[in-house]
Automatic annotation (TrEMBL):
Lineage of the organism: Bacteria, Pseudomonadati, Pseudomonadota, Gammaproteobacteria, Vibrionales
Name used for this protein in its record: DUF3103 domain-containing protein
Classification via Pfam families: DUF3103
Domain of life: Bacteria
C-alpha cells in the first residue's frame, strides 16, 4: 500500500518547525529498518547452518495448529551455546530498536511463510529454506533471499509461492504490536496526553464491563461508536509478508482543554486483505472528544518503528496544529481534519509497512451517527460503524 496524503477541503497548516524533527524520525526509521533486516538475514543464515540440531524442534512445533515457533525454544534447549547467545542478543537488540524492551520479553520467531507450504513441510521430503523479509517498498523488491541448509543463498520470486517450505525469521507481529501500543501510550502520557489503548479482548464483554463500571461511578450512560464490520482492499502483498497487524489512531480535541485527544485501538483480528471481519469492537468513546466528532487513521506496523519516537512525533505535530489556532471554538470540529492530515504527513516513511504504515483515514465521524459500508478517504478500507449507548446496570 502506497502512502497517500489525503488533503481535506480545509487547508492543512504549514508547520515548518516540525519538519526537521519529522525528517530525523524518518531517517532513523529507515536506518533501523535496514539494521533489523540485516540482523534477520544473519539469523536466517545461522538457522540454516544449525538445521541438523534444530530440525526435530521445528518439526514438533510447526503444525497446522501453530505455524510458528519462538526462537526462545532453541535457547531453552541449548542455553550456553554460541547460537543461543546470538539469538538472545538479536532479540534484545531488535526490541531496543523498537523501544519496547520493557513491554515484551521476546518477539523473534520462525514461521512457515505460507499455510500452503504446510503439506510439503509435514511430508519432510525436501529440506526447507530460511528467509527474511527485505526492507524497503515491496514494489521495489527484485527477489526474496533465502538460505538452504548448507548456507547457500537462493533468490526467490517475490510473488510466486515457492514449491519448497520456507521458514521466515520474523517478529511475532501480534506481540510486537501489543507491546508497541503500550510503549506509545506510556510516551504520550509522559507528554501530557491521557491516551488510552483499547484492547480487543476486553471488547468481547464490553457492554457488561462498561455497565458495571458505570453503575459504580456514575448514573450517566456511556456513549460509544462500535465497529461492526471492516474490510481492506486486495493489495497484492508478497507471499513472505505474512499477516498484517493493523491498529487505529483516533484523533480529536480534548473536551475540557485546547489540546489534541489521541487514542489507540488494537485490531489483532484484521489479518488479511479482501476479507470481511465482524469485530463488534468499541472504537470511539465520545466522552473523550469535543463537538461529538473524531477522525480515525488506520495504520499498519513494520520493522523500522521506534514506537516511543513515533508517539512523541504524533503528539508534537498534533499540538502544533492547535497552538497555531488562536480560538479553536471558532472553527470547531473543522480543526480535527487539520490535526489528522498533519499526523498523516508526519508518519515517517519506513516506520511501519514496507515504507508505508498509512492504510486509510476516516474524517469527521459524528456521534450518534451510523455509517454503513463507508469508504475511507483513501478507498482502501470499508467499515460499518454504529452508535452504541451503554446504560448503567439496573439494580
Amino acid at each position: 500500500m502506497k502512502k497517500t496524503i489525503i488533503l481535506s477541503a480545509l487547508s492543512t497548516l504549514a508547520l515548518v518547525g516540525c519538519q526537521s524533527d519529522e525528517a530525523k524520525v524518518t531517517d532513523t526509521s529507515n536506518a533501523q529498518a535496514n539494521d533489523i533486516t540485516q540482523t534477520k538475514r544473519e539469523l536466517a543464515l545461522q538457522l540454516s547452518k544449525n538445521y541438523v540440531d534444530i530440525e526435530s524442534t521445528l518439526r514438533k512445533e510447526i503444525t497446522a495448529q501453530d505455524t510458528s515457533i519462538a526462537v526462545s525454544e532453541f535457547v531453552e534447549q541449548q542455553p550456553l551455546s554460541k547460537f543461543s547467545q546470538r539469538l538472545e542478543i538479536a532479540d534484545e537488540q531488535i526490541r531496543s530498536w523498537k523501544g519496547i524492551t520493557q513491554y515484551a520479553d521476546q518477539i523473534l520467531e520462525v514461521r512457515l511463510a505460507n499455510e500452503q507450504m504446510l503439506a510439503a513441510w509435514q511430508q519432510g521430503k525436501v529440506d526447507p529454506l530460511f528467509a527474511f523479509e527485505p526492507s524497503g517498498d515491496d514494489e521495489q523488491w527484485q527477489y526474496i533471499e533465502a538460505y538452504d541448509v548448507y548456507g547457500q543463498i537462493h533468490q526467490l520470486d517475490v510473488y510466486q509461492l515457492p514449491e519448497v517450505p520456507v521458514l521466515v525469521v520474523d517478529s511475532n507481529s501480534s506481540a510486537e504490536l501489543k507491546a508497541g501500543l503500550q510503549a506509545m501510550r506510556s510516551e504520550m502520557r509522559k507528554l501530557g496526553q491521557t491516551t488510552q489503548v483499547q484492547p480487543y479482548e476486553q471488547d468481547r464483554n464490553a457492554k457488561e464491563a462498561f455497565s458495571t463500571r458505570a453503575s459504580s461511578v456514575t448514573t450517566s450512560p456511556i456513549h460509544t461508536t462500535q465497529l461492526k464490520k471492516i474490510r481492506l482492499a486486495d493489495d497484492q502483498e508478497p507471499w513472505i509478508s505474512g499477516k498484517a497487524e493493523i491498529y487505529a489512531l483516533v484523533t480529536g480535541v480534548n473536551p475540557s482543554r485546547d489540546e489534541p485527544a489521541l487514542d489507540l485501538v488494537e485490531m489483532p483480528y484484521l489479518d488479511y486483505d479482501n476479507q470481511d471481519y465482524y469485530p463488534n469492537q468499541i472504537i470511539i468513546h465520545w466522552s473523550r472528544y469535543r463537538w461529538g466528532a473524531a477522525d480515525i487513521v488506520l495504520m499498519e506496523q513494520d520493522d523500522g518503528t521506534d514506537y516511543k519516537k513515533l508517539a512523541k512525533l504524533l503528539v508534537q505535530v498534533a499540538e502544533e496544529v492547535l497552538k497555531a489556532i488562536p480560538d479553536p471554538e471558532v472553527q470547531a470540529y473543522a480543526i480535527i481534519p487539520q490535526i489528522t492530515n498533519k499526523i498523516i504527513d508526519a508518519i515517517p516513511d519506513g516506520a511501519l509497512t514496507n515504507d508505508d504504515d498509512f492504510v486509510d483515514v476516516y474524517y469527521t465521524l459524528m456521534q450518534d451517527t451510523s455509517y454503513v459500508d463507508h469508504l475511507g478517504a483513501g478507498v482502501n478500507a470499508v467499515v460499518t460503524l454504529e452508535p452504541l449507548t451503554i446504560n448503567p446496570t439496573r439494580p
